[in-house]
């Protein structure tokens, strides 16, 4: 039941927020998101981390007589994703407090509505339900980005929308195909339940093309090179809150989809193509990093760095060993936290200077001590310095890739050097040096901005110092996953 | 059967009520009539009756599709506000013609005999020819009526020719007897039978605007007053597809192999022409016309699948498509009335600011037509694709349809972009009558309801 509560509370709250006129909407939305976080905490305390089983399950018939169920529940991986979502959404709402968007009720209602879609993706245990929430999460973010975004928002978000839907339609076709493979002896016994999919014994050939149908959908969402072309523009043109939602949470949908619906469903397909996927991911790491080094716009820089980071997560996951998978899960959390924080810091700088160009900034440290510290911590988390959250994930991921193939590990390891280059170059350009005309009157963080950044920084250290809090939650679930893949 | 009689009587009553000075009573009266018919129709559920020496059968199939068509008409009528306001419009006649054409539509889903199918199509079509030209002073409307009439009569001729050849080959008009007739001689199909079958398929393909017999559709849809276009795109198409499926299922199940190549070619062509054609249309109405062609393609996919999932898939798809079309054409009509007949995408600019309700309704409708979750259209597509994939060897068709559905999102989202992301400019608030707003809200609720709980209607047949 608590899963259903987690799922529907944001949607209900969204309807409520929609009715509130004026800027009061943001407060109600914030409180609603906090309540959602509290529900997630309650769920976590009741969660038996030692067992890899799915917990808090609810399984109701959805489309009668067709074996399509409203089946939701959480295992360790889902729980971590739900925690990430519920943790970030209140902060994202809080980060918009000083910005008066037009039609605030619609803006915040869409954020909450999207949260329902995101949670739904992470808890759905039925293929069609998963697809349903997958698209439900897309619609609000499209509108947020396309209505409140920058100058070029219309063509950019249009590409984003059509591109992602194009990918997901393939996923739908694959799901329909898999659905008809279940209960093959009896026509009426089809099921789209995740367990039914796991029990399928498909031929290697059909697994091979099902793999691509599913992979394209997930790869576009993550995005993996060469399916990333929508991403930098969309991140840049979206309002910061949408960018945070997209990069912090939504791209995790793609990775989560791989974990839940790709690896265990078509293991033979994966073993045919995993090398290619690893190569693509590693190209993505190097490509994203190298382009990030050349960027002048802060938002674009972080957008490309995100491609690099996600490339490493994808590479680690497709190694199909425990280090890679565990590293992928923990890195999803870390990346979500770091990238949300970094985009917020860019927003803070932009609010004060009206520019995101590195060349027109500089010398901010002299005026803003607190901002410098927070920025530095998030940045170091992002470049995977030991004791920060990024280190745990990247270490495990690189170990996983190295175990798979030492050469791949060596090339993927470049990410550590390259990310230091672009991150520190950015920090240097923005924060050090002489003041520019834009940063002359730079003021330090306000209370509201600190309120957003402090929880994020706490998490940077928590995951960095005590990763076992989180690794132990996902470990049994990852073990289960590996058992299914290797059966 | 009762619904056919009632509709005919109500149509005549409506004509006489038209003699009254006040037109105000006409709309409530027509709505009341349709509600009565809807209720009476439902009484036939699980109570199969045959009439006229087995010429008509009112079974669950007929009741279900009659239900969709009556409901759709019920939802369309409130958009006639502009006719009520105008002095010189022959509102009573319009309503009566709509009721009469519904009689034809019901016969098309209840026939047991090819003659009844022919009569049904004619009753439906002749009313539509008149209504297409109902805007007497508009050149486009006249053109639409003439085009529709000439092309329609030609293809009715083709259909009739087909019926005659089938009769020649089997000696009967009864679809069950045709299905049982032995048309094989020395291991090959009777040529006369095959020819008749082909002509029948072509005749009905014209009625549902399937490519390559779709050329009339964009022009006729555009020229016809939007109020009647809605009826054409929904009731006529539903009746046509339901009749098509019933015909193939009852009469030509045994000769599947001889019509399958034709039907699959028509389906593929319709999907491609409809979706690609819609991309380049400058006006929303023409875009919707092409989109209706593409939906005929999706509906035909169930016929290609031709298994026990098909009936429910057609039913659900027709229902979701009809409701979404009422919404899209309804909003289009309100917008064009307020913008002096402008049907371009620019007419929708800024609608999200001036009329949030209309913009929201249009968005839901576009998403439903595009097949995006949370709307009924998603499950419509899902059921259709399921039926095709269940055949086991037609996955390529689903892949094609999926790619074209993605193309569909491209042109549907253009309307949404115009409404929410373009400035309103000189576009002012669109006036909406209470009845129309109510209908739009009901349709929106239905679309989302069926999009969340499709089980309510997905297993009726």
Automatic annotation (TrEMBL), chain A:
Q: Which InterPro entries match?
A: NADH4_N (IPR000260), NADH_Q_OxRdtase_chainM/4 (IPR010227), NADH_UbQ_OxRdtase (IPR003918), ND/Mrp_TM (IPR001750)
Record domain NADH:quinone oxidoreductase/Mrp antiporter transmembrane: where: 125-415
The way it spans or sits in the membrane comes to:
Multi-pass membrane protein
Q: Which domain of life is it from?
A: Bacteria
Q: Name one GO molecular function term.
A: NADH dehydrogenase (ubiquinone) activity
Q: Tell me where in or outside the cell this protein is found.
A: Endomembrane system; Membrane
Its Gene Ontology cellular component terms are: endomembrane system; membrane
Grouped into one coarse class, the protein's main location is membrane
Q: Which residues cross the membrane?
A: 68-94, 106-125, 131-148, 160-180, 209-230, 242-263, 275-294, 301-320, 332-350, 371-392, 404-424, 452-473
Q: Which residues form the NADH:ubiquinone oxidoreductase chain 4 N-terminal domain?
A: 66-119
Which keywords, in A-to-Z order, does the entry hold?
Membrane, NAD, Translocase, Transmembrane, Transmembrane helix
Give any single GO term for biological process.
ATP synthesis coupled electron transport
Q: Which family does it belong to?
A: Belongs to the complex I subunit 4 family.
Stated name of the protein: NADH-quinone oxidoreductase subunit M
- The species this protein belongs to is Pontibacter fetidus
Q: What is the lineage of its organism?
A: Bacteria, Pseudomonadati, Bacteroidota, Cytophagia, Cytophagales
From TrEMBL, chain B:
Kindly report, in one word, the top-level EC class recorded for this enzyme.
translocase
Which subcellular locations apply to this protein? Cell membrane; Endomembrane system; Membrane
Q: Where is the NADH:quinone oxidoreductase/Mrp antiporter transmembrane domain?
A: 113-404
Catalysed reactions, as listed in the record: a quinone + NADH + 5 H(+)(in) = a quinol + NAD(+) + 4 H(+)(out)
Query: Domain of life, per the record?
Result: Bacteria
The record gives the membrane topology as: Multi-pass membrane protein
Q: What is its EC number?
A: 7.1.1.-
Q: Which UniProt keywords apply?
A: Cell membrane, Membrane, NAD, Quinone, Translocase, Transmembrane, Transmembrane helix, Transport
Q: Could you give a GO molecular-function term held by this entry?
A: NADH dehydrogenase (ubiquinone) activity
One Pfam family hit: Proton_antipo_M
GO biological-process terms attached to the record:
ATP synthesis coupled electron transport
Any transmembrane segments, and where? 25-45, 61-79, 91-109, 115-133, 145-167, 192-215, 227-247, 259-280, 287-307, 313-335, 356-376, 382-413, 434-457
GO cellular component terms, A-Z: endomembrane system; plasma membrane
NCBIfam families membership: NDH_I_N (TIGR01770)
Instruction: Please explain the role this protein plays, according to its UniProt record.
Output: NDH-1 shuttles electrons from NADH, via FMN and iron-sulfur (Fe-S) centers, to quinones in the respiratory chain. The immediate electron acceptor for the enzyme in this species is believed to be a menaquinone. Couples the redox reaction to proton translocation (for every two electrons transferred, four hydrogen ions are translocated across the cytoplasmic membrane), and thus conserves the redox energy in a proton gradient.
Subunit composition and interactions: NDH-1 is composed of 14 different subunits. Subunits NuoA, H, J, K, L, M, N constitute the membrane sector of the complex.
Q: Which family does this protein fall into?
A: Belongs to the complex I subunit 2 family.
Instruction: State the name under which the record lists this protein.
Output: NADH-quinone oxidoreductase subunit N
Q: Which organism is it from?
A: Pontibacter fetidus
This protein's gene is called: nuoN
């Amino acid at each position: 039941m608590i899963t259903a509560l987690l799922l529907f509370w944001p949607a209900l709250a969204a309807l409520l927020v929609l009715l509130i006129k004026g800027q009061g909407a943001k407060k109600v939305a914030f409180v609603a998101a906090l309540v959602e976080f509290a529900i997630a905490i309650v769920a976590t305390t009741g969660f038996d981390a030692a067992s890899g089983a799915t917990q808090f399950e609810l399984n109701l018939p959805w489309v009668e007589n067709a074996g399509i169920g409203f089946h939701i529940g959480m295992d360790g991986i889902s729980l971590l994703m739900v925690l990430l979502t519920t943790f970030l959404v209140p902060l994202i709402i809080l980060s918009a407090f000083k910005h008066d968007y037009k039609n605030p009720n619609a803006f915040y209602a869409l954020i909450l509505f999207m949260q329902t879609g995101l949670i739904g993706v992470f808890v759905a245990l039925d293929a069609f339900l998963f697809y349903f929430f997958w698209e439900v999460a897309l619609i609000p973010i499209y509108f947020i980005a396309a209505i409140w975004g920058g100058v070029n928002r219309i063509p950019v978000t249009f590409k984003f929308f059509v591109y992602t839907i194009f990918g997901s339609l393939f996923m739908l076709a694959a799901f329909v195909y898999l659905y008809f493979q279940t209960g093959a002896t009896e026509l009426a016994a089809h099921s789209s339940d995740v367990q039914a999919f796991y029990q399928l014994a498909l031929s290697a050939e059909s697994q091979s093309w099902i793999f691509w149908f599913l992979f394209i959908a997930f790869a576009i969402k993550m995005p993996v090179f060469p399916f990333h072309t929508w991403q930098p523009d969309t991140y840049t043109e979206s309002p910061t809150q949408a960018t945070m939602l997209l990069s912090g949470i939504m791209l995790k949908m793609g990775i989560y989809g791989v974990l839940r619906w790709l690896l265990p469903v078509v293991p033979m397909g994966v073993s045919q193509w995993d090398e290619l996927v690893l190569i693509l991911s590693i190209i993505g790491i190097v490509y994203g990093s190298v382009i990030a080094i050349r960027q002048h716009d802060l938002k674009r820089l972080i957008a490309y760095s995100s491609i690099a980071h996600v490339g490493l997560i994808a590479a680690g996951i497709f190694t199909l060993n425990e280090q890679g998978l565990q590293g992928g899960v923990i890195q999803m959390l870390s990346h979500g936290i770091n990238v949300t924080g970094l985009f917020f810091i860019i927003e803070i700088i932009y609010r004060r200077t009206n520019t995101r160009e590195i060349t027109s900034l500089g010398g901010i440290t002299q005026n803003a001590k607190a901002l410098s510290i927070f920025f530095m911590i998030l940045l170091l988390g992002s470049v995977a310095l030991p004791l920060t959250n990024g280190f745990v994930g990247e270490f495990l991921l690189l170990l996983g890739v190295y175990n798979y193939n030492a050469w791949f590990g060596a090339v993927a390891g470049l990410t550590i050097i390259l990310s230091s280059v672009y991150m520190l170059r950015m920090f240097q350009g923005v924060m050090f040096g002489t003041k520019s005309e834009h940063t002359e009157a730079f003021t330090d963080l306000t209370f509201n901005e600190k309120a957003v950044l402090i929880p994020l920084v706490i998490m940077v250290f928590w995951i960095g110092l005590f990763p076992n809090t989180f690794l132990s939650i996902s470990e049994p679930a990852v073990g289960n996953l590996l058992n299914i893949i290797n059966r | 059967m009762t619904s056919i009689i009632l509709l005919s009587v109500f149509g005549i009553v409506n004509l006489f009520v038209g003699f009254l000075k006040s037109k105000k009573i006409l709309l409530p009266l027509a709505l009341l009539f349709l509600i009565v018919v809807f209720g009476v129709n439902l009484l036939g559920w699980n109570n199969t009756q045959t009439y006229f020496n087995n010429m008509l059968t009112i079974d669950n199939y007929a009741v279900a599709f009659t239900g969709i068509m009556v409901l759709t008409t019920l939802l369309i009528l409130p958009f006639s506000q502009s006719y009520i306001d105008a002095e010189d419009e022959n509102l009573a006649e319009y309503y009566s013609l709509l009721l009469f054409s519904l009689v034809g539509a019901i016969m098309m889903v209840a026939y047991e005999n090819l003659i009844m199918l022919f009569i049904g199509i004619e009753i439906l079509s002749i009313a539509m020819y008149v209504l297409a030209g109902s805007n007497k002073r508009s050149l486009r409307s006249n053109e639409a009526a003439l085009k529709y009439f000439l092309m329609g009569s030609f293809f009715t001729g083709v259909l009739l020719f087909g019926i005659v050849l089938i009769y020649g080959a089997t000696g009967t008009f009864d679809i069950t007897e045709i299905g049982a007739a032995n048309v094989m001689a020395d291991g090959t199909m009777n040529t006369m039978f095959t020819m008749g079958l082909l002509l029948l398929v072509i005749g009905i393909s014209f009625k549902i605007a399937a490519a390559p017999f779709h050329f009339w559709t964009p022009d006729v849809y555009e020229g016809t007053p939007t109020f009647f276009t809605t009826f054409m795109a929904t009731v006529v198409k539903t009746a046509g597809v339901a009749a098509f499926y019933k015909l193939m299922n009852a009469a030509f199940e045994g000769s599947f192999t001889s019509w399958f190549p034709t039907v699959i070619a028509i389906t593929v062509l319709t999907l491609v022409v409809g979706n690609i054609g819609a991309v380049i249309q400058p006006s929303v109405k023409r875009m919707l016309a092409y989109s209706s062609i593409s939906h005929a393609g999706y509906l035909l996919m169930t016929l290609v699948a031709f298994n026990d999932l098909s009936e429910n898939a057609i039913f659900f798809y027709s229902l979701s498509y009809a409701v979404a079309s009422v919404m899209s054409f309804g909003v289009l009509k309100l917008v064009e009335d307020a913008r002096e007949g402008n049907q371009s995408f620019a007419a929708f600019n800024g609608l999200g600011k001036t009329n949030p309700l209309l913009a929201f309704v249009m968005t839901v409708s576009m998403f439903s037509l595009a097949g995006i979750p949370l709307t009924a259209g998603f499950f419509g597509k899902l059921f259709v694709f399921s039926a095709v994939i269940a055949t086991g060897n037609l996955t390529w068709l689903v892949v094609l349809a999926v790619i074209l559905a993605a193309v569909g999102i491209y042109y549907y989202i253009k309307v949404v972009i115009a409404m929410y992301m373009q400035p309103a400019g000189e576009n002012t608030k669109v006036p909406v009558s209470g009845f129309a707003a109510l209908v739009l809200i009901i349709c929106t609720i239905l679309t989302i309801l069926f999009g969340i709980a499709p089980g309510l209607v997905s297993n009726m047949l």
